[in-house]
Amino acid sequence: MRTETEHTIYLKDYAASPYRIVSVDLDFRILPEGTRVISQLTIEPQETTAPGTPLVLDGDDLALGSIAIDGAPLVLSAYAADTNGLTVFEPPLRRFVLETEVNLKPEGNTKLMGLYRSSGTWCTQCEPEGFRRITYYLDRPDNLATFKVTMVAPRDVAPVLLANGNLVGEGDAGDGMHFAIWEDPFPKPAYLFALVAGDLGSITDSFTTASGRKVELAIYCTHGKEQQCLWAMDSLKRSMAWDEKRFGREYDLDIFNIVAVSDFNFGAMENKGLNIFNDKLVFAQPETATDADYEGIERVIAHEYFHNWTGNRITCRDWFQLCLKEGLTVYRDQEFTSDERSRAVKRISDVVSLRGAQFPEDGGPLAHPARPDQYREINNFYTATVYEKGAEIVRMLATLLGEAGFRKGMDLYFERHDGEATTIEAFLAVFAEANGIDLEQFKTWYLQAGTPRLTVSDSYDATTQTYTLKLSQETLPTPGQPTKEALVLPIKFGLIDPNGSPMAWGGVSGAEVRDEMIVLNGASAEVTFTGIANKPVPSLLRGFSAPVNMTTNLTQDDQLFLARHDSDPFNRWQALQDVGMALAVDAINGKPWSAEAAKALSDAFGDTLAGETLDDAFKALALSLPAEAQIGRTIGKDIDPSQVHAVRDDLLKAVFGPLALPMLRAYRALASDLPYAPDAASNGRRALRNRLLGLLVASEAAGAASLAAQQYAEARNMTDRLAALGASAVAWTADAPAMLADFHARFAADPLVYDKWLAVTASVPQDGVIERIRTVLADPAFPRTNPNRLRSLMGTFAMSNPTQFARADGAGFRFVADFVAEVDKINPQVAARVLTGFRVWPMLESERRDAAKSALTGLQSVNSLSRNTADILTRMLAS
Ligand code: TRP
Ligand code: ZN
């Protein structure tokens, strides 16, 4: 396999640069033919830099036009420049200004890193290493500099000119050109640089901070979409208020701008004072956006805004520390949503996605620590582990320290490290210091890959009235980490007495127990409770207080008891999941469920549906069986996804079939004539109603398929319409093809709604889906350069359609591998991301495993794979 470069970067090799860039003056002359960039970098040697130490700047795909130091052009022998970098052999050993000129072709930049054009708008994406595609630079997060940016562009195609910080000048530049000058007073790493030039509409608003500073807010977008930005603006203002209230953090510039663009590799980007967003995370109106879209917008607007303190004011020393900003900022956005909506519902949904995305990563060939110690391609480390497990680690810290202790640590973090580029060690040190505790062992969470298994069994001794919990933990080897250490596991728990109320205990001995939390920090421990008059049922790992896979000796009866009586809503939900999981796994292992067992679960679901104290959103989550992928992972090896699909389908019919009548009644009662509103209560109502519809269709209840067709046709918002379409498509009801065709006819012209059609099309588990996707791709008008389109179609197929992707005949694997090879030439980040869908392959049964391996080795023989794709492929095949 030929790759761009094989070299690996190690954390242990980190060294400060011998030079630092202290300020940057950039001059962009933006024209449709190309963009000229003149950069003046004010550079200083470090105190310890020896004379004659070369200055090595990063570059990527750059062509140097001219170069000078302090105004004097350099002779050819004084420097070496190629597309990958610029070396000045003997720079002055004092402060100097290096001036370079490069010419860029943003139009042809399909990688969408650096300066590119999206629907005519010039925009940038610099994290993590895009700035080196704009000019030669020390493109590393530990170089903080102030930026001044001058932009000159034709007024007709680019009336709007934006960059970071404050607008300090603007005016006419003659010949139909105009200019704007932006200055950002806060020193920042280059990855936070951004500019936008284009013909955009906008909405404006303002926010007054706690200390009375008035901040001008604006969201820029394609003309005509302004009214679809109102929800994003509302979310922004709530985020700003929340960060003041919850973390004491105020916004620090006079302007905060957001720009929505159509071509974007990720969700959004926290550039200082100028966030750039994938437009799917900005635009919302009830007819075209679902409740999930509204929630996603609120969450990501908050996330990027929160980065202003956790990421921008305090940034990362190097990219190994990525979870310093990402894990912490995800934790903060999770807390925001929990405070704005329902904490229990948010926790359950976050755990569903953790198990759906992070656990499979952590248990497969791409497993890596939340803080990796090596990488070949940093773009491949924007992962569920860095983001979501990173957030879980911060959450455990908050659980261990308590709210006040956690806040003390955060306050010290902001106080001590503001304006710095720092590390995980420094982050942990503030919590240790502020709380007078030791976090050495806790740090292992950042260094060790793999999801720990927690095993708990209980026993009761009536004669001594003692109750004992035996706990043990184990983490299986992961690539590069054959042996594992014990982690610190905060295990929140409660004991419930036989009549369903919380049980107190006389004394407790064994492992560390405080309040209602066991802290397990060794391989195993025993906790004994005294003064226990009856055998309790334990509620363990409440709120999912540690990201582990837990197995217990609880019986189905115990679990169903918890589902009814636990005061912890997470564990009520979990108990139902556990019962469903046990029935499915046993059946796959040749022990079909008994009629009584299925009835008991069915009755518990029935009670949940009828429950008067439970809110709709919770019920919607509770009325479900574990996902196929999760059942597969619990089985752990020789998985046959078709069998998992079939068994889950049967179980669904067995437990929800008998509930058809109450479900239908509830479905009808939940209908609402009110206009669409995105609040938590209305959202919950729709979620439950649509969940019931999905269950009715999937369990083939009489009349359910036509009920779905009717809901589809009569829907007055996209949430209801898409739910009906999705339920019908997955079950491939008689109406499904016509509904898909109708949806296409209605919405294909709106790219973000077309994405929903693509995703539904790609997720149909029945045969024929590959042919239908091929037809879509065969259309020359299908936009191959747009990441949203590609991910909706192929990302969905590879990640969310296990039966067809992992077909026994290998057709799904080959299809995805061919696609990856093709798209790798256009956008390596998208290609590498789709390729990660293969990560389940080592766990599949042998025929599918062989088929996957041969598709992967076939891809290996493709010439000139990008470093992104080659890196994933190498790791994927190493296992
Ligand atoms: N920092 C961004 C976030 O967390 C992530 C991001 C945006 C990104 N664009 C990217 C990462 C491009 C890699 C490549 O919100
Ligand atoms: Zn982020």
What does this 3D model show about the protein?
The protein is an alpha+beta fold and 879 residues long. The chain has 5 domains: 19-199, Immunoglobulin-like; 315-447, Neutral Protease Domain 2 (Neutral Protease, domain 2, Orthogonal Bundle), CATH 1.10.390.10; 453-546, Aminopeptidase N, middle-beta domain (Immunoglobulin-like, Sandwich); 548-702, Alpha Horseshoe (Zincin-like fold), CATH 1.25.50.10; 748-879, Peptidase M1, alanyl aminopeptidase, C-terminal domain (Zincin-like fold). It contains 26 helices and 33 strands. The strands form 8 sheets. The protein has an 8-stranded mixed β-sheet, with no helix packed on it. A 5-stranded mixed β-sheet has the order 17-18-19-21-20, covered by helices on one side. A hairpin with a 2-residue loop joins β2 and β3 (34-45). The longest helix is centred in the middle third of the chain and has 34 residues, at 384-417. Residues 1-5 have low confidence and may be disordered. The structure holds tryptophan and zinc ion (ZN). Residues 125, 127-128, 265-270, 303-304, 326, 379, 382 line the site of tryptophan (TRP).
